[in-house]
User: Which sequence fits this backbone?
């Protein structure tokens, strides 16, 4: 029997409907409109696409939103000054600087310059630290989206064996932390695998829930997955183009083979991807509520 498909597109749509109700209530009852600025440095096509999608989502939810485009040769000090301007703007509750940045700009310095109360990407060390100790904070968007997919799919995490493949600061490390925590969607026993892991299959075959963020196409094959596992594929890999020039995408797992073994699996595209922007919107609504003392 084929696995249940966990549609990130459908879950994201449900969450956005919930957020729209919250946004309308904030406006009507409290006179608060969530404000988001996305700062784009240069004209990287992928980055342009990402910020366009983020602004579209913000507009549809009724946010006050600003798209601030800056030239690729902007001085680091000028970019830091721009961030400080938005830090001091009470109409802006969330600040997102689209990565990657040009080489002459120190990304760490830029991310640290964002007020943690407006860090809706969840990358500032203050928010990372709060996440680790289980305090309320802005969770990084992709891991937060994965958590929502797991919870809303009905997968049991308490006491489950969870294996995370990948140890990046953006997905792997925060995902491990979230699955460990004593709360809904957590309470799991977690193993993390990476490029130096020996006999990876011994770990992945134990997983009740397998989360793969390796960044390599189809690195996880069917023989590496336990029957009945829940498989969350975070990877988005371009492996070619159609005759019409459209990119052909695949994940980090061999979807066609694994869907015959897993109990549930996310597709690529349409799985984790749609959740990331939605959780950015959720964090911005949370930031607006916090700023208003709600």
Assistant:
């Amino acid at each position: 029997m084929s696995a249940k498909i966990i549609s990130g597109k459908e879950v994201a749509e449900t969450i956005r409907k919930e957020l729209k109700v919250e946004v309308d209530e904030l406006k009507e009852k409290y006179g608060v409109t969530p404000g988001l600025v996305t700062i784009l440095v240069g004209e990287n096509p992928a980055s342009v696409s990402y910020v366009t999608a983020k602004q579209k989502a913000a507009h549809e939810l009724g946010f006050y939103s600003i798209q601030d485009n800056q030239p690729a040769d902007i001085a680091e000090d000028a970019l830091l000054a721009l961030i400080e301007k938005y830090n001091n703007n009470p109409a802006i509750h969330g600040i997102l600087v689209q990565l990657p940045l040009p080489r002459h700009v120190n990304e760490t310095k830029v991310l640290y310059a964002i007020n943690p109360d407006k860090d809706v990407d969840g990358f500032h060390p203050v928010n990372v630290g709060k996440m680790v100790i289980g305090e309320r904070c802005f969770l990084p968007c992709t891991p937060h989206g994965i958590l929502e997919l797991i919870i809303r799919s009905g997968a049991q995490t308490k006491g489950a064996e969870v294996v995370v493949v990948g140890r990046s600061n953006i997905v792997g490390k925060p995902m491990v932390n979230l699955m460990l925590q004593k709360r809904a969607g957590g309470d799991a026993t977690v193993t993390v695998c990476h490029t130096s892991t020996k006999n990876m299959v011994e770990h992945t075959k134990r997983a009740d829930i397998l989360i793969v963020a390796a960044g390599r196409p189809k690195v996880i094959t069917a023989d590496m997955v336990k029957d009945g596992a829940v498989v969350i594929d975070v990877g988005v890999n371009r492996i070619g183009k159609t005759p019409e020039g459209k990119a052909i995408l695949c994940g980090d797992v061999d979807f066609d083979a694994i869907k015959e073994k897993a109990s549930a699996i996310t597709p690529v595209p349409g799985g984790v991807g749609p959740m990331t922007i939605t959780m950015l919107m959720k964090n911005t609504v949370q930031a607006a509520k916090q700023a208003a003392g709600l």
Remarks:
- Residues 53 and 144 are 18 Å apart (CA to CA).
- DSSP finds ten helices and eleven strands in the chain.
- The two ends are 47 Å apart (CA to CA).
- The chain has two domains: 31-117, 141-272.
